[in-house]
Design brief:
Elements: H1 2-32, H2 35-42, H3 46-52, H4 56-80, H5 86-103, H6 105-112, H7 120-146, H8 155-175, H9 181-197
Length: 201
Amino acid sequence: MIKEHIVKKQKAIKYKIVGIASDVFSRFGFKKATMEDIAKASGMGKSSIYYYFKSKEEIFEAVVKKEAHALSLELEKKVINVHDSPKDKIRNYTIIRMKYLKEMVNFYEALKNDYLGNLAFTERIRRKYDKEEQETIRNILEEGVNQSIFNIQNTKFAALAFVTFLKGLETTMIIDQELDMKSLEKNLDDILHILFYGMVK
């Protein structure tokens, strides 16, 4: 019983450190943030931080995984596990993805920052995220094909093309700090209209 209580307490402290570190990394970026910054922000000694995490890289990995998990849960709740039409699912997936990537600074940095590519865990996260995203989009597209909504011969290739399109789109939208969610949705609706219906009259 005592051991179980200690384990729960340690988990709670680690969770607290990860939450605070997330803010620190968001403000300074991974490269500039230090263990001292994290310790100071959490009100703990640096040695206490090292007791729970071996390095800054290990904390950042925990932060990125937490953000990635939050995004996955949101997509499951609002896109994957709902009974919307495939077209609505594609739209909602795109909007939620863009909204969360704009907010999840650390996860986005892990996906895009070449400097962080030197960290082994970022490559694992990138591969896992790419695979999961392509599978999710492919499942939605296949659902649309089965309902005669989409006319797609190769859903695997179409999913890859759509994910590639999203990656190109996210760079512009996330860099543009002035772009609010209403404008984001309007821009995405215009682009999705072209994707669904084409440009030829």
